[in-house]
Specification:
Mean pLDDT: 85
Largest sheet: 4 strands, antiparallel
Number of helices: 13
Low-confidence stretches: 1-6
Shape: globular
Order of helices and strands: HHHHHEHHHHEEEHHHH
Strand order of the largest sheet: 1-2-3-4
Strand content: 5-15%
Helix content: 40-55%
Radius of gyration: 27 Å
Structural class: alpha+beta
């Protein structure tokens, strides 16, 4: 959503831009390099890539530097840049089962098939602020270092497959066995009723905080959509990206990307649901962003269960995009004096009309013969 002032205030706008440039030139601190941002602010970079809908860590890092750390502004820059890029090819569908897992946790099962891989995370450390001028205490590990994982351990079987083998998993795939083409929200706006792929795609590039807030309201709000969700599995790793060769037609790998994937298990207990089984919600997004993937998976199952009655699908499709919502909010700072003046004129006219009516009601009645 874009807004721009048509007339007025040009001198003030140019002066504001000059102040930004002057402040940057007056800053004598070393300039943050792209490598520093991608290495030390990787989670912010991953978030900008996901919400900007462009997997390129260097571009996201440059956008963060230009936006002075504002994730939404950096996302705006990335998505605007993405719209100028040529679409050279369409990749083949990514198979998450090919993921080389770097982190894997299975909260629902104590001894899952394959290892629990904590990977690179600060989830289990104390939230203690460390200043740059304070020495960081060394970490003492009594156990022997973790051995290198085998290929089988880096490609473990899904926990949901265990539930499927136990005949405890409902099948949410199309009943006719079809595999429809995914909805491309970058080319066509999605509006309810929309296919599941459109809802998932909208959530994949939604603003992370907005998505988490929507999920929290879904389970804690007043709509009455009570549901009990258990995280089946959260993964972070690399998946290959393949395209078709334009001459041979054969698929070949052009590289790999990091993604975060989540499966959320839902206890089916509705009057029209199969109470003897569970259902699974799914989430996948660029980079390492577990909060978004978890919210996606929970909202996926909630949307399929309650989306038609509570307006959840409409909320996910139309209100969680960070550029849309922040664009509407930011435009409030633009001049609105013409429209507000018309509102004042209407109020004055209403008051004047009310005063005339009151005067007519209080006039003395004329004498009649």
């Amino acid at each position: 959503m874009g807004y721009s002032g048509a007339r007025g205030g040009l001198d003030a706008i140019l002066a504001a831009e000059s102040l930004v440039r002057t402040a940057r030139e007056a800053d004598n601190s070393p300039r943050l390099t792209t490598e520093q941002i991608t290495g030390r602010m990787r989670l912010a970079v991953d978030r900008v890539m996901g919400e900007g809908s462009l997997y390129d860590p260097e571009t996201a890092a440059d956008a963060l530097r230009q936006a002075e750390g504002d994730v939404i502004e950096a996302t705006h820059l990335v998505r605007a840049h993405q719209s100028t890029l040529p679409r050279l090819a369409v990749s083949e569908p990514v198979d998450p089962d090919e993921m080389t897992v770097q982190r894997r946790i299975v909260p629902a099962w104590r001894t899952p098939d394959g290892p629990q891989l904590l990977g690179r995370t600060s989830d289990y450390t104390g939230r203690m602020l460390v200043r740059d001028d304070e020495p960081v205490p060394p970490v003492v590990i009594d156990e022997a270092p973790t051995p290198d994982r085998t290929d089988a351990e880096r490609h473990p079987k899904r926990f949901s497959e265990l539930l499927r083998e136990m005949d405890l998993l409902a099948d949410s795939r199309p009943t006719d066995g079809s595999d429809p083409e995914p909805f491309d929200i970058s080319r066509h706006p999605a509006a309810p009723p929309a296919p599941r792929s459109a809802v998932l795609a909208s959530m994949a590039r939604a603003e992370t905080g907005s998505l988490i807030g929507t999920w929290y309201r879904s389970i804690r709000g007043t709509e009455g959509n009570l549901h009990e969700v258990t995280l089946g599995e959260v993964r972070h790793g690399r998946v290959p990206v393949r395209v078709r060769h334009p001459h041979t037609g054969n698929a070949f790998s052009v590289g790999d990307i990091r993604v975060t994937e989540c499966e959320a298990i839902e206890d089916l207990n509705g009057p029209d649901e199969d109470r003897g089984r569970f259902d699974v919600g799914y989430g996948l997004c660029f980079g390492h962003n577990e909060r978004k993937a978890i919210a996606m998976a929970n909202l996926d199952i909630a949307c399929r269960r309650f989306g038609d009655t509570g307006g959840l699908e409409q909320t996910l499709l139309l209100t969680t995009d960070g550029l849309d919502s922040c664009g509407f909010l930011e435009h409030l700072k633009l001049p609105h004096y013409v429209t507000f003046r018309s509102m004042i004129d209407r109020k004055i006219a209403v008051q004047a009309g009310a005063g005339d009516a009151a005067d007519r009601n209080t006039e003395p009645l004329g004498r009649t013969c």
